Amino acid sequence: xxxxxxxxxxxxxxxxxxxxxxxxxxxxxxxxxxxxxxxxxxxxxxxxxxxxxxxxxxxxxxxxxxxxxxxxxxxxxxxxxxxxxxxxxxxxxxxxxxxxxxxxxxxxxxxxxxxxxxxxxxxxxxxxxxxxxxxxxxxxxxxx
Length: 144
Fold this sequence. Notes:
Distance between the termini: 56 Å
Order of helices and strands: HHHHHHH
Largest sheet: none
Shape: elongated
Helix content: over 70%
C-alpha cells in the first residue's frame, strides 16, 4: 500500500561549512577601506560638531535653545526622509558614482554654513546636510 520513500536533506553540515568559510573580501575592498573609514569619521564629526559650535552659534547669531534644538532635529528629518531614495539611487547609479555625488554635495552644504545669517537658513542647511549624508553609509555597504 505505501512504498518506502527515501528523504535526503538538502542542507548538510558540509554545505553550511562551505558557505561560512567563504573567502575574505577581495583586494579592491581592502584598497578602499581607508577611504570609507575617513568618510565614516567625517560623518561622525559632522553629526556631533553642532554641539561644539552651539555656544558661538547662539551668541553670534542670537539663536536660543529652541532654534538650536529644531535645527538638530531638521538634520535627522532630512536623514530619515532621504534614506530610502538614496538606497534606490545606489542601485541605479552605482555606489562609486553616488558616493562621489553625495560627498561633494555634503561638502558644499557644510561649507555654506560659513555664510549663515538666520534661523531659517540654519534649518534648511541642517535639513540639506541630513539629506546629503543619508546615503553615505548604505552606499559604502553596497559597494563592499
